Amino acid sequence: MEKRAYLNVKDVSDLLDINEKKVYVLAQEGKIPGTKITGKWLFPAEDLEAIIKGKARETSGRFFIELVMKNRVILIAGSHDPIMSTLEGEFHEKNPQYAIFSSNVGSWEGLRLLKDGFCHIAFSHLFDPSSGDYNFPFIDDIFDDQRELVVINLFCRTIGFVSSKKMVASMTDIAKDKMRFINRQQGAGSRERVNAMIRSEGLTAEDIIGYDRVVYSHHQVINAIETGEADAGIVVESALPGRALFFHPISDERFDMIVQKKNYFEKNVQSLVEFIRSSAFAHILASQKGYDGRQTGKIMYPRSEERREK
Fold it and tell me: What domains appear along the chain, each with residue ranges and CATH number?
């Protein structure tokens, strides 16, 4: 049967499996797309199908999260840090009823997956130079209301330029000396920082040899430089011990975990929050170079707010 562009009330009643009176109510309340022409309601078929598909995705996302919650799994997506493997192992040893599964997809993608309901926690260290704040300016771009989220600091960490030939302190140094740069994937916090430095130094991506060549972790950046495939990149200081490479600090950046408020008090998420605030995690941070736990476990607020954790 040929697909019609518009449906009548009876068609919509059959499609949604509701009575025709309910179709009129939904149309009048603006909850389904439709228009009244010469006394009759007509409904765009494509728009209705899009709504149905969207509701199905939303339902499947909620079902997936509920299933994972019952199975005592914690799903984490977002930024990568070398300390994560230690965190995951020690957390499971102390809480054997729970297991962490993480996906290194970059800070931006982690926040998007959190919004879509496909992880419990997003790890992010996105920095906004205009406000001097971390994560919240980007949360505002992705989420409808930041009050639906809880942002907890995991740690602060030192990041910097790593290079094999000579010490570099800026993207200008890399461009001037025609060094081959190794970048991180689109949406990674490190790449966003690279983009900000390029703009602030009056450069363009075309000035940086290797800008479009990407890897997905700090260790991959170091490996590319050590094997001679690249000359410089940006990594966390903790990835460098024992490496015969030059390191120049850029900043101490804030690395946060972001949780939807509706999931924050679930037992598995709370178990991880408690572990983050424990002496065991403080010991992990203290044993590695380049970490600072001065705000670890604290609930964070935008810089524009004066609120503090009570």
Answer: 6-55 (1.10.10), 72-292 (3.40.190.290)
